[in-house]
Give the backbone structure.
Amino acid sequence: MNHDIDGFRNYLYEEELAPNTIDSYTFGVRKFFEKYDEVTKPNLIEFKQELIDKFKPQTVNLRLTAVLKYCEWKDINLKIKHVKEPKKTYVENVITPRQVTSLLEGLKKDGKMRFYYYIILLSKTGMRISEALKVKKKDIVKGCVTMPTKAHLRTIHFPKKLQNDMMPLLDSLNDEDTIMQNYYGQPLTSRGFAEELIKYGKKYGVPRNVLHAHAFRHFFAIEFLKRNNNIALLADLLGHGDVKVTQIYLRMSQKEQKDEIDKAVDW
């Protein structure tokens, strides 16, 4: 039976969903139709149960959302409850101030100043890597830039300390040049950044589990709250639509929780 997956993909595109989301939804729908000929409530319930047996709640819900989106496109009136995801009470894989310092000192000592400035950019703004890759010299000189997120526009601020620290790099660029470039002067990719980060982290003794761009976003949030406990402001700075998302940074990291338990349980 032809379920017109290509038509579904075009529908998602016209809904202005992100490319990765479109790929995820079409994949989920393909998986459903590998087993079932049509979308019915019994089929969807059975599909849900099979997913629960194999995958984590996040993956289960993503596949269910994909099929429900397909139903929306086909005007099929079906609903199904999503799986409750366990609430995180800690932030995972947080890079520590000592590890950031070790990374920066190593890069500076070895003359890897280009990457040195990229770490500064991420750790002093809390930007996502996808946002940082778009930042231009003129944005940092101006002190802020407005970028679109999934639901709204948000303004990213560049503190004076960041502007001053990055001045040597800014002096070598034109106003329209992106800050993050590869060795050939071309815009850096998220994959290119990740590969270099792993390479330098290994060299300077930073654990592999914190060697990802998002670790610096966590780092920024935690360090910001140590100096300014305005959680609503931090939510705005990080581009969170709900302050409840930001509140996780008020909690201890997983390691900190374990350390405290180890201290307390002495009986």
Observations:
- The chain has two domains: 5-74, 97-263.
- The mean pLDDT is 88.
